[in-house]
């Protein structure tokens, strides 16, 4: 991990980048921003770790917990809710054996997240799997896709 972080630090120093850029690079490489990474980069750049954590917790695009290899985003906006997204969410979480306080499976293969609206109301309910939008999705389609990604 240190080798990856050193490369990010070198890029930051050369380009006089900002903290957001450093955090984005860390997340791109590690799939999340670990405490260990923040403290390492903080020490190397002589910037207080609190500044990094302040930025990382301000922006919702940053994740401070490990995320799965596959990201399943389920819309729970009004149109999707009316079309049954709550059942999709519940069934998906059940299939992946996620406890109510968990987003990521124990094996690190899946993260399931709910979002307020993806802006694709005309094709509700909507699931986004690894950045690919699936509209008018039903539970069988969703579970089939999850099984494909599991193998």
Describe the protein in words.
With 151 residues, the chain is of the alpha+beta class. Helix content is 50%, strand content 12%. It has seven helices and four strands, in the order ααααβααβββα. It has helices at 2-15, 19-30, 35-45, 49-58, 78-82, 85-95, 139-150, and strands at residues 70-75, 110-115, 127-129, 132-134. It has a four-stranded mixed β-sheet, with helices on one face. Helix 1 (2-15) packs across helix 3 (35-45). It is elongated and about 50 Å long.
Write the layout of secondary structure elements.
Layout (H helix, E strand, L loop, with lengths): L1 H14 L3 H12 L4 H11 L3 H10 L11 E6 L2 H5 L2 H11 L14 E6 L11 E3 L2 E3 L4 H12 L1
Parallel strand pairs: 1-2
Antiparallel strand pairs: 1-3, 3-4
Q: What is the helix content?
A: 40-55%
Low-confidence stretches: none
Structural class per helix/strand content? Answer: alpha+beta
Please state how the strands of the largest beta sheet are arranged side by side. 2-1-3-4
- Rg, nearest Å: 18 Å
CA-to-CA gap between the ends? 27 Å
- Rough outline: elongated
Order of helices and strands: HHHHEHHEEEH
State which percent range the strand residues make up: 5-15%
Count of helix runs: 7
Largest sheet: 4 strands, mixed
Q: How many beta-strand runs?
A: 4
Quote the average pLDDT.
92
